[in-house]
Sequence to fold (710 residues):
Amino acid sequence: MRVAVCGVIGSGKSSLLSSILGEIPKLCGHVRISGTAAYVPQTAWIQSGNIEENILFGSPMDRQRYKRVIAACSLKKDLELLQYGDQTVIGDRGINLSGGQKQRVQLARALYQDADIYLLDDPFSAVDAHTGSELFKEYILSALATKTVIYVTHQVEFLPAADLILVLKDGHITQAGKYDDLLQAGTDFNALVSAHKEAIETMDILKINKMGENGQPSSARGIKEKKKDERKKKRTVQEEERERGRVSLNVYLSYMGEAYKGILIPLIILAQTMFQVLQIASNWWMAWANPQTEGDAPKTDSVVLLVVYMSLAFGSSVFVFVRSLLVATFGLAAAQKLFIKMLRCVFRAPMSFFDTTPSGRILNRVSVDQSVVDLDIAFRLGGFASTTIQLLGIVAVMSKVTWQVLILIVPMAIACMWMQRYYIASSRELTRILSVQKSPVIHLFSESIAGAATIRGFGQEKRFMKRNLYLLDCFARPLFSSLAAIEWLCLRMELLSTFVFAFCMAILVSFPPGTIEPSMAGLAVTYGLNLNARMSRWILSFCKLENRIISVERIYQYCKIPTEAPLIIENRRPSLSWPENGNIELIDLKVRYKDDLPLVLHGVSCMFPGGKKIGIVGRTGSGKSTLIQALFRLIEPTGGKIIIDNIDISTIGLHDLRSRLSIIPQDPTLFEGTIRMNLDPLEERADQEIWEVCPGHFDAILILNFHYSY
Fold:
């Protein structure tokens, strides 16, 4: 049975399908579905991957059925034109497919599932009239002849073939019946059909008038389709870039120079050095001033002892506060500068970058890696400097009290460095693998949220959950190995430190009585205990710093993304009134998306007179959207010129060009916020001006304004 759902915009057609799927909570009543369902949303949802994977959608391959599906969805010619056919890897959200191609891919996905019930939300709106008619005949009337089909449509020509037509208005079914019966009944359905016919007649009249005014079109060379016999294979979506080997010293130096040109680094080291000197001095003072035995007289007065000690302790507290303040200031400034630099590079990246980079990778770097830079790296760097200075101070004290310790400290340091190098070689690569493995998890999560209705409509929740768990396992494996490697290093460092401390104690005990003062021996024991912890902490802090600095390394990779042309070219700025007439001339325009891909526009030459309404038609994938992108220089032409009012647009800045043009994209994008903010995002217009440009939507906005703040 074929059920058509029609009605004016906002009447509740899509909501009806969503309620059948259970996507909208029911206030009352119930919905019962007998059999499996397949859902095709109004806005195409395409997964990253190749076209075959999108069509199969987790089902096993049946070659004969697959070929029938391709034919029914009019995809055969498109696949022949694509470089690798159905193995072509499409980018994030199918960004390198046309709107019609994406819609037909998701129609093929639904048909291949061989479901019992098909819910189609205006499936032919994104394709041209000829393709739409062919799709309706081959897809709905032929391939789904034995299925239950509920399709939403605004195209009246598809209504007579329906067994039942539902007319919706304000969320209610106002009429139901067959096409002829509803026409005879008049009212809402008759008004819809009449409005459609009037629109067609108006367009025909306009077409006749235009041909009467100018019977000859502008001189143009058509878009020729050429094929390359030999093409280099290259994936559309590239593997994520990952460095190997040691982190370059330039990464450390560049990071330290981000905040105030690195002037805070020596101040941090100085503050930590002063803190350590004063701390050692306070301990030494107490050890020297106190009586060595019960009968000895104090070396200084109690008040002097206390005042000097408190002064030294207060001074060390001041310097440690200054050090912490400098580290926090440095970390905040460096993080802000890095984030702004990365954000500018991403925003100024060419469209080819977004075609080949899934959104999960970008989100990973601007969220996870940036979070490490914000909250961790500056303190890791400060902690490493602090531990290094403390370790040097401890060695200095112990060398002064028990110089024999130096005999073992040197080989201990060599052993520690060997273990550190042995550990860091694996730990560093594990951290890089972790960063790379996190991107697919984030990408699948964002992709699943965007296509939640489709996933639930096809009953694919378990498959996506299984895929998510698999990706989490891929992420957890190097994470577990990284944690195990840390424990491996800690165990050996503790054993080595314990051995060194035992050696120090053996030396102190073996000294003859009177060789060393008891207070100094106590000082040596105290610092010997600290030596164990500080040596281990020094090695670990360096290893963790190098692991964390990889986030800076990854951010710098995005800071090196090739940028678009300059926003403004001072000596080539057009006048404020440009373009005055709006004449557009294309001269031998050639466009390709990437150097290794075939041309999309092949030497197009034509003239668009100013003030005229120009229609660009063609089969889906023929290059219509590409031509618009070339006008905005989202894609730089491979050859030829685009001239607007006697100015070659390739010679002016992108801001000067794009700020003078307007576009209604094929896939509209709305930003979070109010309707007014979306209408005037730059806040350049008064309320009255906004009301004047949308008189046709006055009632709809008033209704929204009654419930919400517009």
Q: What stands out?
A: Confidence is low (pLDDT under 50) at residues 205-234, 706-710.
